[in-house]
Design a protein that fits this description.
This protein is 53% helix and 0% strand. The chain has 6 helices and no strands. Helix 1 packs antiparallel against helix 2, helix 3 runs antiparallel to helix 6 and helix 4 runs antiparallel to helix 5. The chain is globular. 41% of the residues are buried. The N terminus is likely disordered.
Length: 142
């Protein structure tokens, strides 16, 4: 896939100054954990399904589908391996922070689009913005 787990260092989270998932507000920690788990257990992870169902109820399948589309879209547009930490990691990597930034800023298309293009290294990544908007609408990102 597009994720490189070989990098030993954990870089600071660029989004909010926090560098631990458990310090993130709203659904951000759940989304980070879910993305990490989905990448490891591609394409389905029963633990993610259960956690999303507890949080989102009847909308859980939609959120899971959006997350898988989001990850697949990032994978197809990224010009380099994007770095995600192991699912249980206490640190947030810079790419994860950039993904959260895009999701939080999705209602600002110029800002979020530019962040997507920078993250992926390609202008075509701006086409993923509708997925970010949908994820933002379904979740609380603090």
């Amino acid at each position: 896939m597009f994720v490189d787990f070989s990098q030993p260092g954990h870089l600071p989270h660029r989004d909010s100054g926090r560098d631990r998932p458990d310090e993130l507000p709203g659904d951000a920690a759940l989304l980070i954990w879910s993305m990490r788990r989905l990448v490891v257990a591609w394409p389905r992870c029963h633990a993610v399904q259960a956690a999303l169902h507890r949080r989102f109820g009847s909308e859980a399948l939609g959120v899971e589908h959006l997350l898988r589309c989001w990850l697949a879209g990032l994978a197809s547009h990224a010009r380099r391996p994007l770095l995600l930490a192991q699912p249980g990691s206490a640190s947030i990597l810079a790419d994860e922070g950039a993904m959260l930034f895009v999701l939080r800023q999705a209602n600002e298309p110029d800002v979020a689009g530019a962040a997507l293009a920078t993250l992926c290294g390609c202008e075509a990544a701006r086409g993923l913005l509708p997925l970010a908007v949908a994820l933002q609408r379904l979740s609380r990102l603090g």
